[in-house]
Amino acid sequence: MKEFERKQLLERVNRESSTIGVEIPESIEIQGESIDLRSFVFEIKRRDSVPPGERDRVDRAKRNLRRERLDRLEPIEENEVSYAEGEELAASIIGIDRALEALEGLDAPDPETEAKRQEAADRKRWMNFLKKALGRDDASGGGGGRTRF
């Protein structure tokens, strides 16, 4: 494989938007064992939250998927495969990433709660910035004769 092709494949698998529109693979072979990945992910996502008894199973699946992703990425990084083989590996890596995204999002807060949390964090950062910019950090005692707002 040529160097520019290798870089192109690596950029493709590492792009944040690479999983948009990609389906979770029907099945995947991990460490010699075939797993019905799509049905597993949909079975887990069908519930509102992961039951305590399933948490270990989901965590183990995520660890195995991350390990398999690295195992499939390495031949591309080390230029040990042809471009055609690299393309197949890249497609499978993106499918793994899609499954991981689905599994990672299980315990994520709803969008409204997350937006409120982000807004509060942004407000706090802004206030800290203003305090520093105006020389009013907690140790300075208010910055002398400047007006307060």
Overall description:
By secondary structure, this protein is mainly α. It has 5 helices and 2 strands, in the order αββαααα. It has helices at residues 3-14, 37-45, 52-77, 83-104, 111-133; strands at residues 28-30, 33-35. It has a two-stranded antiparallel ribbon. The longest helix has 26 residues, at 52-77.
Helix-strand layout with pairing:
Blueprint: H1 3-14, E1 28-30, E2 33-35, H2 37-45, H3 52-77, H4 83-104, H5 111-133
Helix pairs in contact: 1-4, 3-4
Summarize the structure.
Helices cover 62% and strands 4% of the residues.
Compute the gyration radius: what is it?
A: 23 Å
Termini separation comes to 62 Å
Query: So how many helices?
Result: 5
Order of helices and strands: HEEHHHH
Structural class category = mainly alpha
Task: Name some characteristics of this structure.
149 residues; mainly alpha; 4% strand
